[in-house]
Amino acid sequence: MTRVPPRHAARGTSQYISPIAGFAAGKAVPGVLTLISIPIWIREFGPANYAAFSLYWTISLVGTTFTTGWLNQAILRYTGDRALAYENLSRKVRTALESAPLVTIVPLTVLIGFMVPEGAERWAFLAVGAVGLLANARYQVRQTLAQRDARATVFAVAETVRAACALVFAVLLAAARVIQPWSLVAGYTAAIILATAVLRRPTPDNAGPLPDRAVVREYWRFGWPLSLWLPLSLSTIYLDRFVINALYGLDRAGTYAAAADLVVRGMGLMVAPVILFMHPAIMRSWNTEDRPSALRRWRRMTLLLTVGVAVAAVLVLVAYALFADRVLAQVLPIAPFAALTIGGAAWQLALMVHKPLEASNRTATMLGALLVSLVATATLDLLLAPRLAELGVAVAFAAGAGVYIALVLVLNARILRAEKRTVAVS
């Protein structure tokens, strides 16, 4: 394979700060804008129209995860490998791959029938939704390419444009009295199209050293387990809420979910920028046959993340103990919240811990480890939830993360030993 000289080589940890800060801005600013937007959307368009938009967005998210999640992960995996660069694919093949989420129009048609009256409104919703599915898939691929190339500033600007324009377009539609079930979808889709223009790239249509079929086959071989891993990981993380709801009702489930979201999303905001930058950086070193450097980076960042999430967990616990009763209407006891905090930190750390398996194309193994974790979590939920309620499911959540990390560390050890032997021989 044709290799590219490693970028970011011989850089210290301090030189990671700028791109990681850029990716952090790309997560934090749109997050704040979305929090501002939601109550405005509900007020201007009504709960029913917002519910239709929420359903569309959920289906779009799940649909793109299944249909193009493997593609985005493969693009990152082959960072620095010119023979397998996404830009080498013909425009026709790229368009076909990015159009795959259109298949989700089928479940959208079925589910939207319960929310949007039959007739012109429903057809308009489906038409706008189809355009939105295509636009979102294209945007996610362009985002992935920006992540691959460490274009953190462009990533942040595009995300800010997406969130800000979604709010502005919705306000303009409301001012024009275009209050329809499809209005929010249309405004959001227009915002995504503008954000995609900010990201630009790719335009090359040059034939690469490998035929399109070979590149797509390599992408699929690596990526298909991750199209299952991504939604399955959400099942593992959110299983506890369904258990509490089934056993103790919506009120207690709501209180638990609020605390869990605070932890999981809060930890995610902290860790995501590091993963966004370090994932392609590690893969670039690995693909340029500088594997010892890739593993050194992985070890360094895993250690720093471990310290970071541990400190963050302590600070979150202290803040919760001091201020939760002033901020939240219903407060979860400190013991289950502590278990949730440990679990949330562990699951975020797991995203870095399993990088050697990804680099070695052991994605099916990662999926197997996650399945074991899910079974362990579900078993503990069944055993502990009836007796310990929220504490039981929180402990199960943390234990599931522990099982996944332990399995991955055992599997990583084989990869590290093999690489050490390779270096010794060379």
Explain this structure.
The protein is an all-alpha fold and 426 residues long. It has two domains: 1-210, no CATH class; 223-426, no CATH class. It contains 13 helices and no strands. The longest helix has 61 residues, at 17-77. The chain is globular. Mean pLDDT is 88; it is low at 1-11.
Condensed summary:
The chain is mainly alpha-helical.
Please render the helix and strand layout as text.
Elements: H1 17-77, H2 91-98, H3 105-112, H4 120-148, H5 152-175, H6 183-199, H7 212-248, H8 250-287, H9 291-327, H10 334-353, H11 355-359, H12 363-388, H13 390-425
Helix pairs in contact: 1-3, 1-4, 1-5, 1-7, 1-8, 3-4, 4-6, 5-6, 7-8, 7-12, 7-13, 8-9, 8-10, 9-10, 10-13, 12-13
Write a concise keyword list for the protein shown above.
426 residues; mainly alpha; 2 domains; 13 helices; 81% helix; globular; disordered N terminus
Coarse morphology: globular
Strand content: under 5%
Major sheet size, sense and barrel closure: none
Catalogue the unreliable spans: 1-11
Average pLDDT value? 88
